[in-house]
Structures are given as C-alpha cells and as structure tokens.
Amino acid sequence: MLCDPVSLEIIRGAARAAQAEMEALLERTAMSAFIREKKDFYTALFDASGAMAVGSDLPIFGDIVGPVTARYPLESMQPGDLYWY
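Structure (tokenized):
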C-alpha cells in the first residue's frame, strides 16, 4: 500500500509521539532510581515480523525482539500484551 508524503509524515509523527509517551511513562513509574536517573531503558515499536518501526538504532539492542518471538510465537500474541525482556 502506498501512502502520500503528508500522510506518511503524520503517521511517522504519531508513532514517534507514542514512543516518547512510552519512555515518559516508563521513566515516571520506574521503581529504580537507576532507570529514572540514568535512563537505562529502551522503548520502540516493532512490526509483525519483529523489525523496528520506530526507535533509536542503537547497536546494543540489535535483535531484541528475536528472543521474545522465539518464546512467544506471533500467533499467541494478543492486542494489549506486554513483553518485558
């Protein structure tokens, strides 16, 4: 499916905003001072194949979704599921 440039930018901006909200929520609710102060966490949005759609391209995170999809196949995932790795 093709998308016009304006719609693409709107979608991209919304996805980045969702990632920023995830970061803010994780930082605000973290019990660990190390997580809050050092920002020792990572948030991203991934597509159904496990490819990163929105997030930073830090090499230390590499194939972070691989172990999750190995343990929980795509068919078993439901909307609202959260996977902490």
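Residues 5-76 form one domain. The first strand starts at residue 45 and ends at 46.
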